[in-house]
Queue: 2 jobs
Job 1
Amino acid sequence: MPTVKIDGIEVEVPAGTNMIEAARKVGIDIPHYCYHPHLSIAGNCRMCLVDVEAGGRGPDIACNMMARDGLAIRTDTPQVATMRRATMEFLLKNHPLDCPICDQSGECRLQDYYMEYGQYESRLSDPKVTKHKRVDIGDHLVLDAERCIACSRCVRFGDEITGTGELRLFNRTDHTEIGIFPGARIQHDYQGNLADICPVGAITNKDFRFTKRVWYLKETDAVCTECATGCNVRVCHQQGQVFRLLPRRNDAVNKSWMCDHGRQAFEAITGLDRLLRARVQGQPADLDDAVAAAATLLREAGGGVAVVLGHSASNEANWALLKLTRDNLPNATVYAVAGNDPGAWDRSDDFLMDADKNANSAGIAALMAHDPAIRDRSDLVQALADGDVDVMLVLGDDVLGRLGADGAGVRVIHVGSFRCTTSDAATVVLPAAHPYEQDATWTNRDRRVQRGRRAIHPAGDSEPAWALMERLGAALGKAPGATSAAAAFKSLASSVESFSGMTYQSLGNGGAVLASPPSPPTDDEDALETIHA
Amino acid sequence: MDVPKPRILTRRWGLEGSHTLAVARKHGAYESLRKALTMEPSAITQVVKDSGLRGRGGAGFPTGVKWGFVPPPEKRGDKPVYLICNADESEPGTFKDRYCIWNDPHALIEGCLIAAWAIGAKTAYIYLRGEFKFVKDRLDAALAEAREAGLVGRNILGTGIDIDVWTHLGAGAYICGEETALLSSLEGGRGQPKLKPPFPAVEGAWRCPTIVNNVETLQVVPWLIEHGAAAYRAIGTEKSPGTKLFSCSGHIRRPGVYELPLGYPMIELLNDECGGLHDGRTLKAVIPGGSSVPVMTPDEVARATMDYESINEVAGSYLGSGGFIVMDDRTDLVAALANLLRFYAHESCGQCSPCREGTGWMHSILQRLAAGEATEFDIATLRDVANNIHSRTICFFGASAAMPVQSFLKKFPEEFFGRAGVDVPDDWQPRAASAK
């Protein structure tokens, strides 16, 4: 690995690392607009010009300067400051300076860098070039070409990430502007990312614009639970209300991107289908009373008890449910019903939108490997057909919907956040917190356990599902010990092999991949001989 | 001056029907090709290296050295190599290449074939500027004749060597004369320069090794094969061997294209070849190498010779493409510079910030200044903008637009401050710190 020197600080970086990233490693920020770690290098904004001390000729752009032994750059010279000021002046030459009505205000790089490298005293006396404004370029996007600095990030996103290529640079000179071909419209599922990567206010998100000044928003790191991909997100919220989601960089999962469905999924938190109150026999009830009613149902079941794990629910909730069942309901059978809920969004691709709309299928698979007594979908279908199920405890998923069953003759306890066929048929409903309302982990399609943090308080009477399991376990006699999310996860990690050694601390912001389960023992002698040969 | 003036590039110019294959062949065309195809490609490159031939497009980079940058076959794998002839001649004040092609298209075709053989290319493209439709028609006719005669295409002259030559008409953008922008345009994209590295010799057209040479450069190559490197070195100066075409225009009696040995005194080019200034006029300024290079004063003109070194030493300017623009005492230099900047402000590709925003800015300041509506503060701003563009851009266009401004302000400050109604300030620094 080559060693480079930045402002006198030596740092060793992998070959192919550019100087912006190398500088980041030693805590030096090189300002830039057009460079993006997940797009090709364009080198057009000229904001990252640095002096070359050794190993090359300068000034040159840091984004296209790859690490090589002997390369030494300086970002702290008067000339670099001068170059940055000059670039800022050029970029603002024809910029409308409409910050007071611009949604990018507060997270605009023109503003940020102006504070450090502004001329302050304007010497721009010529009229500004006017360009297209309020161009409707997609369902989620509006383009203001006057605010654009022609960094071409959006063009490269369309060329390199979605491969749809709708956006282009049109015209030349100071009349250069980003535009869309006549009659074309951005229709892909990743539009929001274009607003994210626009370093200025040229492309803004219709769903968010004019709803909130960004400096009022708090950001909480979370994980999208709309499909098995588990994109890392930042939940932007103020006083208990979520205003938008932004992707959070995780190179192993979603890089810097997320899909538009996931981005708007927070709207369901306050949607009409949200379950906010406990219900018993169709009537609103206190949570305590509903938990007691559920415990009674389970304890006094006349026939079989079916406990169904939740493919969308967190690792903590599923573990608490499994534990309370094994501790309190020795005769119950635990099932896991794979598949998507009816009415779930149905778009998928080979990028981020997985066909499996459950956030935790891999976590369920890990529990099934740990507890071979867990039965699958076909077993539950059989049990229902045989009339072997009297009481069914369901965590999150719309199990009846998935099976196409009406639940006649079965008394259902549904623990979930949203109304569905199962909750409609349920005798007892316990309202569960939305993923963004709780601390918990989910295991994505690549078996990566990822941690989401609570952004806002649970709405209504809802509580995290693992907390509801704790209440239910207590009412049944023995609580699973899920007094907090961390405690529930600790219990899981100490009991289930593939989670062994994991803690919330060790998961960090990037998550960690489950240990592979040991290969199942085989008694096929031929196979053994093959292995030993 | 009584120096020999050998005709290398213009040897067939003026012959009746010089653009036809029959006349060209009668006067030696394609004999060098016959010889070159029997030589090892590396030997041809060596001849060009030894001759000291420098790129005639403007940068003056040694041609043979450039050819040597093509990765050897074992390193480039199965990627093809391309030869591109840059015939996007658009520099204001430069009009030699069109005459080269117009008068002797077969010299260019022959040069392309020999160069292609030397670098291992099987395909050569001649990229002409959009306005050169009429030139392209003549070149296409010559190509058809040559192809018919078995000189282009498959099995050239029965040697079993295949090299094809194609012409391509650009859409009329000055920037496409910049070699990487030319490649973008040739590939079918927006004519925008690409970041270097990688350089075209390693990763050029369609990301394959590519050599881009100017028309005049390639037309020298057949002569080099015929006469050898030493004969070429005997002409011109030690560091600038050979002859060069000069496109002479402006306030002179005999504008036109002249072939002269490099090192020829500038004042003699002006007074003898160009016929001097019109009666009663005196010299005010000369732009020696196409509109982009720094301007020269009469004193500098008197001392400089027409070669890559002297112009730089005497005047800090460049030989460039050899576009020799003469301005006499009646020239309004502010208006002249405003006119030049109108061109650059129109032709900037708009890709990188300093050039995109700065060329238009400089033009608008100059327009106001020419109209007497600007102050001395605008002149300082103009200077700063030019300094902030120069060498801060992806390609050389930024510097090309900045250098005229920088040099005019440095060498003729009184013209500009006079227009603002003030004397040149005592503390005027033409190369002051760029931004405030």
Job 2
Amino acid sequence: MFENLSERLQGIFKNLTGKGRLSEADVDAAMREIRMALLEADVNYRVVKEFIARVRERAVGSDVLNSLTPGQQVIKIVLDELTHLLGDTNSGLVLSGRIPNVIMLVGLQGSGKTTASAKLAFRLRKQGRSPLLVACDIYRPAAIDQLEALGRELDIPVFRGEGADVARIAKAGIRHAVDNLRDVVIIDTAGRLHVDEEMMSEAVRIRTTVKPDQILMVVDAMTGQDAVNVATAFAEKVDFDGVIMSKLDGDARGGGALSIRQATGKPIKFVSLGEKPDSLEPFFPDRMAKRILGMGDVVTLIEKAQEAAEADGGIDEKALKRLQRAEFTLEDFLDQIKQVRKMGGIGGVLSSLPGAGRLKGAEQQFDERELDRVEAIIFAMTPAERRNPKIINGSRRERIAKGSGVAVSDVNRLLKQFAEARKMMRQMQSMSGKGRKRMKFPGGLPGF
Amino acid sequence: MSTPWHKRLSEGLAKSRDRLGGQLNVLLRRGPDLSQEFWEDLEGALLGADVGFSATEEIVTSLCDEANRQALPDAQAVLGHLVERIAVELRGAARASGTGTITTSGTTTSGTVGGITTGTVGTTVFDERPVTILMVGVNGTGKTTSVGKLAKQAADAGRKVMLGSADTFRVAASEQLDVWAKRAGVPVVGRERGADPAAAAFDAIEAAEKTGADFTLIDTAGRLHTSADLMRELQKVQRVSVDRSTPPVRTVLVMDATTGQNGLMQAREFDAALHVDAIVLTKLDGTAKGGIAVAIVRELGIPITYIGVGESLDDLRPFDAESFARALIQGV
């Protein structure tokens, strides 16, 4: 519903094009949309308030850059500010020279600590380390079994201690690592509520006993407003060095990342994106900023489209005109395929679009080879045929099929799709009437 | 261990309604005036409780209208009114959906009499007898733990329980359920890891039939609602269960109260795929208010039946709309 902030902002500003400067009234309208987008992304409402105030200050009176519309200008400011607040660059895991290095994972129940522990171990091993997992969750039934089984699958040793003293288990784990020449120890702790004093002091006990080099807090990306309370409590009581944001493979926008960063100043270090062991990835503030705004990676997409068009010597004005009159030809179609290719193929385009989470399946359904086939078919046509597909009769179809190595039915399908796309363009044309602005998007992609 | 939330809640219940505000609500500390600031703070409280932008805006706008129309004298009256309204909405869902709405092969069940719910706290899918319940939800919401606690409570109440472990995916999930089964003293049926979860559910229902169990709880693997394959897998589990089970099959969504706006998407997707009969809201013992439940009830009308307020067995308790609504607007 709130997927497309950029579109809505463009809507607000559509009557304002040509203005050189953002007025207070323009900015007010935009701020409401941005506030809504941030709240829907679960950014804490207090953080939103501060953020909006900051952005407003920057936006009012700022010059609208030549290349941008007022809407894009506001988005640019919001994105810059958001990226900045999220930490500008990614801050990876810094291991000290100490052997073994000790990393401790903490978090609420169900945030995904055990899974994250295993993924982290897997990642470190890929970097040439030899990790040991230490199971310190003695409370959740079968939690230790879970870590053990994960370790077995990844072929990473797991240490399980005895008794109910988790600090002692952690210490024994480190000794075990030393004895077995493991150079990184990852301690998986029990999930605990930040208001549970007893459990929080247990975490502190582990910390003071083993003095971890890094304490990472695992936070579920779906966490709502409470992320601030949780992170603040963990920062005060246990203290941590960074955050792993889990379950980002869903459609949660992960606004908690901003809240946590704002409330505690701690960087997000990794994002966790699924069940596979290699789905722990470094955190990129700019990507997260776009995700929080529900924008996908539209900016990059636009950049790519522009690059692609410019590499072709600018947008072909004639083609654009033909497109607008719904008279585009198979030749234009061919050009567009070329541009899509330059932008990373259908998969690349789709994954950059807002709401792409929902399209994940679709992305896989698109066969990139389909593009090859379409291209081949069009190449096998004469220029006259490309310009006027109506002349393609039965014998021409057969020749084209032979020439491109496909079946006649493939040729038929392409021609049908093309005709439909053209019809659609014509309908859009008549629907949008006179006020229609020219197509902004060079790779208009009819037919798909 | 008694948690602060729990304590606050019971204290709140003990107090009369007009004393409530003064004692509990930060909103009132600055005085009873219905200033612009009051409305902004109220909005903040609802947003901070995860009620969400749209629901909050609607609630505050209509409450503001009403306060003017009915000439509500002060903030206390407005808040009392608000609590009542939210509670009515939350209870309304229980009534509207009631029980027996899902398509099952079973017989019609008790719980509703002539379309009117009996009982005060409301009868829920968990009161039906016999019944087969599928517990579903995203990863880490506390499905297995809830299954364990519900099993124990039902067994203690004299019901004959059968547990089914259809989480054949997560490592050590069935071991976790085994521990709970032992604690509750009830049998559990499962299959090895990697087996077809629908087959595991089938086995559990069959075992329940053989042993004459009237309360079959089936735990399923956590899955993100965005994963089309896994949602289809769950549909199959449900389909197979409905085909096999003589008692009606109910589907219960377990949701973490710390979940923000994504909770609404979860509820939408699970409901679209499975028709969810009830929600269990877990982890209310922290500082999260679970306000997303309000948004879910408003949009989808799925009743909340149980809330989890702590680790111990009886910390899973029947949902009470009024105390929930009251806790929601407590000063943040």
